[in-house]
Amino acid sequence: MYSTIRKVNKLKDSLAYHFCHGLIESKTEASLVQRKMETKEEAVNENGESSRTITDGSICGHQSLHHLLQSSLSPQVFKEVSRLLIGLNCGKALEPLTVVETANGLSSQHDFDIQAFRFNADKELLREPRIVRVGLVQNSIALPTTAPFLDQKKAIFQKLKPIIDAAGASGVNILCLQEAWMMPFAFCTREKRWCEFAEPADGESTQFLQGFARKYNMVIVNPILERDLKHGETIWNTAVIIGNNGNIIGKHRKNHIPRVGDFNESTYYMEGNTGHPVFQTAYGKIGVNICYGRHHPLNWLAFGLNGAEIVFNPSATVGELSEPMWPIEARNAAIANSYFVGSINRVGTEVFPNPFTSGDGKPQHADFGHFYGSSHISAPDASCTPSLSRNKDGLLISDMDLNLCRQLKDKWGFRMTARYELYAYMLSRYVKPDFEPQVISDPLLHKNHL
């Protein structure tokens, strides 16, 4: 796995280097001029060569790797590169959907990226297609983190309203927002005052979204910072599932909490206690694997064993730490577990009033890094959508035929060949204090040779 990540990272670095240095010709002189206009700084690398640095979160002036390649390669070459990067759905290139005029208008008026695609399944003789329209929302915060907390939250609500309206106008059945969407991702600071953003599962963020759920007959996954009023006001990282009638179906709390870099989340909340619930909605069975849980294959597996057809991964992650992993982990989970995965990441750089450190030897700093957006959807047949913008708000819409889940189970037989009893035995031994690894040593390894 790690060798694959290194190869992908090297490929991205190589592409970015060559594009930024103009070694790969763009299609038009205008695109070269545009890239120069969006270049913010110029530095000198260790070889004494000029290296441009983009500071707006783009990739050499482009919103995504997909856009960079599309604008710079011939149509024939781009088609082949896309086949390798995002795969084929039922043997064909992923089909784009036409975005309705109302949604396009909202996108233009409020400056957010909007893209739409369709995942097909093979036609069956005994089952009708089970088409579900899913939407993912990524966004930056709306006000500086120095603004009054209530103003910050209200501004985020207002910012999301036209994006959710665009999803509703597009007929989205299930909509998922990003992790802790109703606040800055302030858990890097370790300052407890940010706990004021926590709210009950049925609090104001849920109430805000319930109106949209009823208006658009839409299931909404609402990831919040939860305050459990019945259990000592304990705080959790929680996803509240709102039904298409505006009711609360249930909730899931984040299973795995990071302790890496600036992700100081365990200062605020600990590992969840809700297991791996799958929610039967009007449109299908869904699970929520919150953020850091995507690094744990068994977490993905458990949602699959409980019957999930779509698993959402609402996240908040930054480029320096995780971007090489981002297009790999969710796609691998979709393949291995024969379900769809919706990956959502927030956008922008959030600067906090007080500098902080995280015990990793880095100088004090006031921001987490760049949240690189790039939300996308992965299918069980290894195909995936292009990503949303790396540096702007966005709405990704996708039709998916849930019949594809069972078709891929039948094709690959992963469940049938999984040997769960073998791993259950191994894990039952591993969690015991007297566990001994099964290591067979070469008997000649420690002998002296003349």
TrEMBL record:
Which terms does the UniProt entry file under GO BP? Answer: beta-alanine biosynthetic process via 3-ureidopropionate
Q: Print the keywords alphabetically.
A: Hydrolase
Q: Which pathway features in its UniProt record?
A: Amino-acid biosynthesis; beta-alanine biosynthesis
The terms under GO molecular function for this entry are:
beta-ureidopropionase activity
Give its E.C. classification number.
Answer: 3.5.1.6
Q: Which reaction does it catalyse?
A: 3-(carbamoylamino)propanoate + H2O + 2 H(+) = beta-alanine + NH4(+) + CO2; 3-(carbamoylamino)-2-methylpropanoate + H2O + 2 H(+) = (R)-3-amino-2-methylpropanoate + NH4(+) + CO2
The segment(s) forming the CN hydrolase domain are 132-402
Keyword Signal assigned to the entry: answer is no
**Could you say which protein family the record assigns here?**
Belongs to the carbon-nitrogen hydrolase superfamily. BUP family.
Protein's recorded name:
Beta-ureidopropionase
- Naturally occurring in which organism (per UniProt): Tagetes erecta
